Amino acid sequence: MRTFSQDFQTELYNLMKWRRDVRHFKPDPVDPELLRKCLDAFQMAPSVGLSEPWRIVTVNSPLARQKSLDNFKAANADALASYEGKRATTYAALKLSGMSDAPVQLAVFCAEDTAKGRGIGVQTMPEMRRYSVVSAIMSFWLAARAHGLGLGWVSIIDPVQLRTDLDLPDNWSLVAYLCIGWPKEETETPELETVGWEMRNAQLTTLIER
Ligand SMILES: Cc1cc2nc3c(=O)[nH]c(=O)nc-3n(C[C@H](O)[C@H](O)[C@H](O)COP(=O)(O)O)c2cc1C
């Protein structure tokens, strides 16, 4: 049996506690070898039917970065318009992406009709492919944090526009736009909590019994 030490168990919880959604990055570059090591998390991740439906696009060129940033700015302006009064003022002050400063930016897609996995588990719930991508991202997020790298998940993006701008196949759906780099600060508290937008639930996760 492969077992894990008590120290490791404690540290694993510390890792989860100190994982943050990071939106403020130092300008320092990320060593490609380190990024590669973190990306190994995808290879180890679970997926429905072993379909491994993640498709990872590195958004590198100035044009692709600019189009992605413009996409975020437009979507964020639309989102702001849905709030009123004090909420709108607070929303306008939030930094909801690190796209202007993150040295590494990845757009992670799901191949919605991949044949890999031979249909296991997706006939009843095809969305399981997307959930597989989400769970792989989570492993990647923790791996990055374990190496001191910050990751910010951006969802305020028009997914179809992004796919078109990056010239990707129609059957790929956007799951996440990830900003990665060295965080400006480390904290135990989510930024949205710090700025008074929303609080983490202080109670233990409740179980609903049936
Ligand atoms: C699916 C998903 C989408 C998210 N989208 C955004 C986003 O567009 N912009 C943003 O600033 N944070 C985004 N976040 C980060 C959350 O706001 C953050 O996880 C939450 O406030 C808790 O903070 P923590 O991750 O630091 O614990 C997203 C997180 C998830 C899991």
Strand order of the largest sheet: 1-2-4-3
Order of helices and strands: HHEHHEHEHEH
Unreliable stretches, pLDDT < 50, 5 or more residues? Answer: none
Q: What hetero molecules are in the model?
A: flavin mononucleotide
Top CATH class: Alpha Beta
Identify the CATH homologous superfamily. NADH Oxidase
Number of self-contained structural domains:
1
Tell me the CATH architecture: 3-Layer(aba) Sandwich
Amount of beta strand: 5-15%
Q: Can you count the beta strands?
A: 4
CATH topology: NADH Oxidase
What is Rg?
A: 18 Å
Q: Could you give a short account of the major beta sheet?
A: 4 strands, antiparallel
Structural class of the helix and strand makeup? Answer: alpha+beta
What is the overall silhouette? Answer: globular
Helix content: 40-55%
Mean pLDDT: 97
Count of runs of 4 or more consecutive helical residues: 7
Give the CA-CA distance, first to last residue. 34 Å
Q: If you had to describe this structure to a student in words, what would you say it looks like?
A:
25% of the residues are buried. This protein has a single domain (21-194), classed as NADH Oxidase. Helix content is 40%, strand content 13%. It has helices at residues 6-18, 32-44, 62-81, 85-93, 128-146, 159-165, 191-194; strands spanning 54-58, 104-111, 150-154, 172-181. The chain has a 4-stranded antiparallel sheet, sandwiched between helices. With 210 residues, the chain is α+β, with helices and mostly antiparallel strands. Helix 2 crosses helix 5. The two termini are 34 Å apart. It binds flavin mononucleotide. Residues 20-21, 23, 96-97, 153-156, 190, 192 line the site of flavin mononucleotide (FMN).
